[in-house]
Amino acid sequence: MEYLSSNKIAIIDLGASKTIQKELDEDLVKEKIGGAGITTALYEEYRDEDPIVLGTGLLTGTLAPASALGMVTAKSPVTGKICHAPFTLYGGVELKYCGFDYVVIKGSSPKPVYLWIHDGIADVNDGKEIWGKDVWISTDMIREVMGDPLIQILAIGKAGESESDFAQVCINYWASGDRWGFGKLFGQKKLKLVAMRGMSLLEIADPEGFVRKCKEFLSTIKSGPYAGKGGIGELSAAMGEDIRQWLEPIIHRHLSCFNTPFPTNTFVFLDEDPKLLKETEKKEPGFLITDVHGLLGYKKLGLSAAEACDLLRDCAKYGIDAVAVAELSQKAGKKKPDEIKKSLSGLKGSLESVGKGKFSPWAPSFTLSSDEWERRQAVAYLFGIHPIYALMSPEFSEEKLIELANLGTGLGFTSETLDKVIIDILK
User: Is 132 helix (H, G, I), strand (E, B) or coil?
Assistant: First the structure.
């Protein structure tokens, strides 16, 4: 696969501590497009070896607006089905730039390990020094050892190590869109984390046409209803659950994921003045809210914004799904922060918030029907578009994404191709 691709798939056998590489077949891209289409195909190819598949969308890491998506595809311990969880911020683009479009992780290691994927190389390294550490400490340790603070990391905490059904794979220090318990799968495989760093380049079939169309696309988006807005508060308002006034006193700033026009993340200060302009001297001044549902769950328990965000921080360090914690705490009648924190290590119960679909409910439905939401998510996961922003922006038409894909690859994708792939991954 020559264009919009690193042209490599890493097959990592944790049991043997070995990695092999194979080319990304252009025929597979023509048939499955990318993203969840190919991660699903790779999962099926290695199904007998209980794989976890990391992947990127066809447009991930390009000038296409909101092309920030990376994904994890595996069998969910929560639903028992093959599901897809998103990771955004700069994780998706880093995976593609480090030299691999897809990574298949199969088998289990007899001892703790982590993966170091960089510059077209995938190493299986001893993880005994970071096993037992929380997500934040693990992330810091790897970045310090490698001497690079820009390394992107998918990590589990103690919830994953203890194989909790609600263990989450986190992105750097923060919650991801993993609502499927994929952190438990990492723990079962003795895989502590995946560290990614690279500076590859992507070739484009029609560079001038692709860049021109991306600029036109972005210009259209800038005149949309969310232009000039941003943050978790705006997301909640669009969902019909406005928390802006409740959250405002602790907001420090809003942050966008790679090349995403709308900042879907909000950083709050918990141990520092939120209006501080100079660099804080505190080591852990606050928390980046990346999941609106977790925040809303704690608000429904009657907590203050500061209490809710402090709990989100504890959940991220422990590597557990905050939405599950909030829902099960409500069922158990636990509404005090201290008693909720104490329950993290023994959390059990069934969830109603997960749903039965293939794509993470991390992305709000807004005003879409379930069928509309599912199709929009499928399109986002194929092309590598931020799943939340894809729902917020009607400008992301399937026709425009197909046009960008064809300018980028020259492969001649059609709406019929897209329909077929969507049907396949929704089976």
Answer: coil
Strand order in the sheet with 70-75: 18-23, 8-13, 102-106, 52-56, 70-75, 82-87
Q: How many domains does the chain have?
A: 2
Same domain (yes/no): 298, 170? no
| Domain identity same for 399 and 250 | no
User: What is the SS3 assignment for 254?
Assistant: strand
Are 105 and 199 found together in one domain? yes
* CA pair distance 157, 195, nearest whole angstrom: 15
Residues 290, 296: Cα–Cα separation, whole Å: 12
DSSP 80: S
At what angle are helices 305-318 and 135-146 packed, to 10 degrees? Answer: 60
CA nearest to 178, candidates 267, 251, 307, 91: 91
Q: What is the tally of helices (H) and strands (E) in the chain?
A: 17, 14
Tens-of-pLDDT digits for all 427 residues of the chain? Answer: 789 999 999 999 999 999 999 999 999 999 999 999 999 999 999 999 999 999 999 999 999 999 999 999 999 999 999 999 999 999 999 999 999 999 999 999 999 999 999 999 999 999 999 999 999 999 999 999 999 999 999 999 999 999 999 999 999 999 999 999 999 999 999 999 999 999 889 999 999 999 999 999 999 988 888 888 899 999 999 999 999 999 999 999 999 999 999 999 999 998 776 776 667 766 777 999 999 999 999 999 999 999 999 999 999 999 999 999 999 999 999 999 999 999 999 888 888 877 779 999 999 999 899 999 999 999 999 999 999 999 998 888 999 999 999 999 999 999 999 999 999 999 8
Decide if 48 contacts 239 (C-beta within 8 A). Answer: no
Cβ atoms of 413 and 7 closer than 8 Å: no
Closest residue by Cα to residue 156 from 194, 183, 195, 116? 183
DSSP state of 279: P
Same domain, 319 and 365: no
- How far apart CA 271 and CA 145 sit, in angstroms, is 28
Range of the domain at 43: 1-225+353-427
User: Residue 259 has what DSSP assignment?
Assistant: T
- 346, 364, 389: which is the final residue of a domain? 346
